[in-house]
Amino acid sequence: MNANHHFEIGNTHHVCEDYATSGTVRNGAYAIVCDGCSSSPDVDFGARALALSAKRTLLLLNGGEMNYDLFGKVTIRNLEHIGDNIPLDPKALDATLLAAWVKENQFKAHLYGDGVFVHKSRTTLRMVHVSFEPGPDDKTCPAYLSYYLDKVRLKEYEDIQISKRVFDVSIYIGGQTPTLDAIEVEEFVKPFDPVLIKGIVEPGDVVAVISDGVNSFRRSDSSVIEWQDCVNEFVGFKSLEGIFVQRKLSALKRQWMKEQTGHYDDISMAAIVV
């Protein structure tokens, strides 16, 4: 089993506000991505702190069972007093959390906020895309775990009436190229209900989480590159040895520069190969 991660700054950002981490443990591995809210202060620090807190939660569990709602609340409560000794605004913890792990032949993922989960097997490419729809006042932002640390902010967010959209698509792979035959499932769920995904993996499978920067890719003529096409490229690994995610995204970065393709938002990915 192997795990690797990488993140890149978006071309409209001065500081990368994404953070990713991954690793292998006894009988398993983990992959974590956090995406900080651009309108909140010091979220580059907050995203990293949230990712490391999630890692701590996973390691304490040793990949064991925990209610998906409790997992998020334990992870954010670990950071409740982080600002007691440093001048850190509580809003610095405004970040999404996408955590996936594999233990033996099973995988589980908890998605708090927007982004993409991927499971690529020998025959199927499954992608779960989570986004947030504007409320009646056209405001939209993910339901951050940090709101649980402030009852006033939590109530304000709930009053906006934002809905969460979950798009689940499975593409059957023929040969080396995914076919156009797909099963698509779309549903709306409550903003603070985490998306829980679990299943079985086999040797050679890839499980990955990707930040919502995957929605920000544009060609040189400003036309949009669909997130599904980006994900397919991201997980098209030639080799699964060593720093396979870093190697892939670095190669894509060179390709994007040559083709004058860019992403205005930060992009991060963490992946596990079984």
Describe the structure.
- Helix 1 (43-61) packs across helix 2.
- The relative contact order is 0.21.
- This protein starts with a strand and ends with a strand.
- It contains five helices and 14 strands.
- The protein has a single domain (2-273), classed as PPM-type phosphatase domain (Phosphatase 2c, domain 1).
- It is an alpha+beta fold.
- The protein has helices at 43-61, 68-77, 151-160, 227-234, 244-259, and strands at 2-8, 18-25, 28-36, 95-103, 106-112, 115-120, 124-133, 163-174, 177-189, 195-200, 206-210, 217-218, 262-263, 267-273.
- It is 23% helix and 38% strand.
- A seven-stranded antiparallel sheet has the order 1-14-11-6-7-8-9, covered by helices on one side. A five-stranded antiparallel sheet has the order 2-3-4-5-10, with helices on one face.
Task: Please tag this protein with its features.
274 residues; alpha+beta; 5 helices; 14 strands; 23% helix; 38% strand
Q: How would you classify the helix and strand content by structural class?
A: alpha+beta
General shape: globular
Classify the fold: give the CATH topology.
Phosphatase 2c, domain 1
Number of helices: 5
The top-level CATH class is: Alpha Beta
Radius of gyration, CA atoms, in whole angstroms: 18 Å
CATH superfamily, by name, is PPM-type phosphatase domain
What is the domain tally? Answer: 1
The largest β sheet comes out as: 7 strands, antiparallel
Short note summarizing the structure:
This protein has about 270 residues and is α+β, with helices and mostly antiparallel strands.
What topology emerges from the helices and strands here?
Blueprint: E1 2-8, E2 18-25, E3 28-36, H1 43-61, H2 68-77, E4 95-103, E5 106-112, E6 115-120, E7 124-133, H3 151-160, E8 163-174, E9 177-189, E10 195-200, E11 206-210, E12 217-218, H4 227-234, H5 244-259, E13 262-263, E14 267-273
Antiparallel strand pairs: 1-14, 2-3, 3-4, 4-5, 5-10, 6-7, 6-11, 7-8, 8-9, 11-14, 12-13
Helix pairs in contact: 1-2
